[in-house]
Design brief:
Helix content: 25-40%
Number of strands: 12
CATH class of the largest domain: Alpha Beta
CATH topology of the largest domain: Aminopeptidase
Largest sheet: 8 strands, mixed
CATH architecture of the largest domain: 3-Layer(aba) Sandwich
Number of domains: 2
Strand order of the largest sheet: 5-12-6-11-10-9-8-7
Order of helices and strands: EHHHEEEHEHEEHHEEEHEHE
Radius of gyration: 21 Å
Strand content: 25-35%
Distance between the termini: 33 Å
Number of helices: 9
CATH superfamily of the largest domain: Gcn5-related N-acetyltransferase (GNAT)
Oligomer: single chain
Shape: elongated
C-alpha cells in the first residue's frame, strides 16, 4: 500500500492541482470548466491552510481536496479508483468542517454520474442524494425558430442600473417552485449571478414584460469554453405561466446567440423539476448530455 504525505496546498502546488482538477472534470463533464487563472482567483479567496489538502506519493500529486464555504467538500483523485485515499481526504475535510461549526451543519457536494467511485465513496460515508441535475445541450447549426409571444408580452434586454430589483424579484418569485431553492437576499443573488465579475455580460440577459411589469427572465452567461453559452436562469412568474413565455424567451435567446456566432447552448436543470422544465427544453431541441447528483450529510456537533 502506498504511503501518502498529506498537507495543505501551497501556491507552488497550483499547476499540479489544476492539472488534476482539469483532468477529472474533463472526464466527468466533457471539459475542464475552469482555467488556471480561475483556480488562482479561488485560492485568493480561501485559506489554503484550513480549506485545502494535498496528498503526494513519491513526489507525485495523488489527490487534492477542498472545503468551500465551510460546508462543501470536493475531492479530486489522480487514480479515480483510489477509494482508500478518497476516504482519508473526506474524513479530514469533515474534521475541518466540524472544527469551525457551532451546531448542526449540512455538508453538500456535487458528483458526476460518470464518477461512480466518488458516488460510492460519499454514499458509503453517510451522504444521501435526493436531487439530480441534467446538463442539456443544443448545437446552433442554423437559425432557430422565431419566438411566438403571448398577447401583450414584449421582450427587451436588461438595462444595468435600472432593472436589477425587478429582475431579482422575478427570478426569486419563480424559484419558489423549486423544491430545493434557498431564498436569496438581493446581495446574495447578485453574488450568485456573478454580476460583479469582469466577465458579466448584461447584453445576454433578456426580460419579458407585460407593459412595465417584468414577468419572465432569461439570464444567460458566456461559458469558459469558446463559442459556448449557458442558460443560467430561465424564470417565469407563476401568474404568467402556460402562455409560452418561457419557450419564447429561450428562442429569443437562441436567436441572439446565433447572431453572435455562438455554437453551443447549455443548461443545468433539476431532473425532477416541479414545473417539468426538461420537457420545455426538449421542445426547443435540447438534449441531455450529462447528469450529476447532489449529495448531503448532516453533522451533529
Amino acid at each position: 500500500m502506498k504511503r501518502y504525505s498529506v498537507r495543505p496546498a501551497t501556491p507552488k502546488d497550483i499547476e499540479a492541482v489544476y492539472e488534476l482538477i482539469a483532468k477529472q472534470k474533463t472526464i466527468d463533464f466533457g471539459n475542464a470548466m475552469m482555467s488556471l487563472e480561475d483556480l488562482r482567483k479561488l485560492w485568493e479567496t480561501i485559506d489554503l491552510d484550513t480549506d485545502t489538502l494535498t496528498a503526494f506519493a513519491e513526489g507525485e500529486l495523488a489527490g487534492y481536496a477542498e472545503l468551500l464555504d465551510g460546508d462543501s467538500p470536493f475531492i479530486y483523485l489522480a487514480n479515480r479508483n483510489n477509494v482508500d485515499l478518497g476516504f482519508q481526504l473526506l474524513k479530514l475535510l469533515e474534521q475541518k468542517a466540524a472544527i469551525r461549526a457551532t451546531g448542526r451543519i449540512q455538508l453538500a457536494t456535487q458528483i458526476s454520474e460518470k464518477n461512480q467511485s466518488l458516488i460510492q465513496l460519499f454514499a458509503s460515508n453517510g451522504y444521501e442524494s435526493n436531487l439530480s441535475f441534467l446538463i442539456m445541450e443544443l448545437m446552433l447549426n442554423e437559425p432557430p425558430p422565431l419566438p411566438q409571444w403571448a398577447e401583450g408580452i414584449q421582450v427587451r434586454t436588461f438595462v444595468p442600473g435600472s432593472d436589477e430589483q425587478a429582475t431579482y424579484q422575478t427570478d426569486e418569485e419563480a424559484a419558489h417552485d423549486k423544491g430545493y431553492h434557498n431564498p436569496l437576499s438581493y446581495e446574495g443573488w447578485v453574488k450568485r449571478m456573478g454580476m460583479n465579475r469582469e466577465t458579466f455580460d448584461s447584453t445576454i440577459w433578456f426580460l419579458a414584460c407585460d407593459e412595465s411589469e417584468t414577468v419572465g427572465v432569461a439570464l444567460n452567461v458566456l461559458g469558459k469554453v469558446p463559442d459556448t453559452v449557458w442558460v443560467d436562469h430561465l424564470s417565469v412568474r407563476r401568474a404568467w405561466r402556460n402562455k409560452g413565455i418561457g419557450k419564447a424567451l429561450l428562442l429569443h435567446s437562441f436567436g441572439e446567440f446565433y447572431k453572435r456566432g455562438i455554437q453551443i447552448v447549455k443548461l443545468s436543470v433539476d431532473s425532477k423539476s416541479l414545473t417539468n422544465a426538461p420537457r420545455l427544453y426538449e421542445s426547443v431541441g435540447m438534449q441531455t448530455t450529462q447528469q450529476y447528483h447532489i449529495y448531503k450529510k448532516d453533522l451533529q456537533m
